[in-house]
Amino acid sequence: MYQNLALLAAFLLTYSIFAGRFESRLLNGPLMFMLAGLILGPAFLGILQPRIDKDGLRILAELTLAIVLFSDAANADLKVLRAHEGLPLRLLMIGLPLTMLSGWLVGIWLFPQVPPLELAILATLLAPTDAALGKAVVSNPKVPAPVREGLNVESGLNDGICVPVLLMFLALLVEEQTQSPLSLAVELVIEELGIGAISGVALTLIAWLLQRYAAKHHWQAPMWSQLTLPGLAILCFATAQTLGGSGFIGAFVGGLLASFLFTEQKHHLLEASEEFASLLSVITWVVFGAIVIPWAWNNLTLNICLYAVLSLTVIRIVPVLISLTGTGFDFETRLFIGWFGPRGLASIVFAVMILDYPLETSRTLVSVAACTVLLSVLLHGLSANPWVSRLAGRIH
Q1: In whole angstroms, how far apart are CA 334 and each of 33, 104, 146, 326, 384?
Q2: Which CATH class is domain 52-395?
Q3: Structure confidence by residue, pLDDT tens digits, 249-271
Q4: DSSP assignment letter at 347
Q5: Spatial contact of 71 and 280, defined as CB atoms under 8 Å apart
Q6: Model-level pTM?
Q7: Is 268 in a helix, a strand, or coil?
Q8: Tell me, what's the pLDDT at 26?
């Protein structure tokens, strides 16, 4: 255990010191962490031996996504949704559903042996994009502001939107397996969404009222106030899960409400939450590289690899081009927006989640998800800076 901890800490320390140098080239954090897990792990050198079972991996991934969901929702500027020709709104309301539909149709073509409902689950878990993987794009001032903000808001909200869709398909799967009435599946979805949303709203409102009361009486300490929103994110997630709802919906709704209520101090209070999310993300990417990739590698087939390639290209890019029809963006800019829809943390967590459900082809679905995320980390990481430089040069 201590050897694992020492290796992880040494790598994290080294990367934190030289991050500016790495990320100015063709590398990014998730790529480096994933490669570290893969090379140091059992598949190659074998000096990193993460002793984590399926339940431990699920808890780690779920907790990471809950804090990321809360932080992304709290950071989202909803006024941007209608700005810049409604770019984020078009990507979320038109591009996202079309991406799920095209992913399902391609799945029917490549995996005829997989039940259609399970293919819908696959299409949903690979639909959300990852802001961390696209950081070289969304934080680069060379990228036009509308494109940066559009991609940032899209990646911040689409994983939260995909959660209820995924829950609906999983509930239908349970109903199909148990031969229960369809109304039971609908009831399960409404219950998970309702409990999650109510938990998020109630807890965030209580936290805001307590924070205002403490501020009015000057009872706050700057050091401890940084833990307010990370604590709230975990509280929303864990309470909703305890009550039988969706913790992800609780965290997402709580974050959206926090964005509205904690206006003045929001960015200061969110710093610690984002740092928590970053640390947990590092651990998740290392474990993904050490355990999930070698496992998925043994299950790869030509069709799995082909679906992963299509997921990052046709399945994502065509819906984006359709959703941006009629806007003032030229073709290359629209293609740029379509390409930079990297798959990452949300897809990993959703893939781990489905292992708890009675899927006939869970091995195939998880392998497809792992292959897609691996390709995304490599291809989007390597292409970000060169294409940004080209785009900037063409504009100026």
Answers
A1: 30, 23, 12, 11, 15
A2: mainly alpha
A3: 999 999 999 988 987 777 777 88
A4: H
A5: no
A6: 0.88
A7: helix
A8: 60
